[in-house]
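Run log, item B.
One chain of 183 residues. Sequence copied directly from the ordering sheet:
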Amino acid sequence: MTMLHLEAGPDGHPQARVHLGPRLPDSLRRYLTCDGHIKVIGEIGGVAVNVGRAQHIVPDRTRIVVEHRDGGCRVPGCDRRRRTHVHHMVHWEDGGPTDTANLICLCPAHHRMHHRGRLGIQGDADRPDGLVFTDPYGRRLTGHPRPTPPQDPTTGPTSAWQPPLGEPLHTKWVQFDPPPSPN
């Protein structure tokens, strides 16, 4: 199973990204969406439609949206992108909704720190700069707010490398060592 996020691009045409990964070329997007099973996640103004207080466990659809939005652990300076937990900032048992504004991705270490009282988290997770993280003494944590997203493959590398031109190989200029013996 491959998870894709289909979004409208700046020109209004559809674009696809691999879940937690790079943007796909249009030809590959068309191929993968031609005959695939699709689960629709509705958005209004770029924010996924929320499930409210009806569910305690984060539904798969909401989890996918939160992971895609956060791109990894949201704690400043943490570069963990995969195997994150989706955490209720205001805990469900304390009246917190299972809405994207109240859910963030945390790596297992930061999730444990928060539940042990060593990491404070407040704010609106739907806003890129809407969260405040504090240490046990109330001091604000600073640093890079989230992992850098992967580069789009459509931009290509910027190096000056040129592929081989197809000229013949002159073996007198190249020496190949024999493979080592297994003994």
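Observations after the first pass:
- The helical segments are 26-34, 60-70, 108-115.
- The beta strands are 4-8, 14-18, 43-44, 47-48, 85-88, 103-106, 120-123, 131-134.
Flagged for discussion on Thursday.
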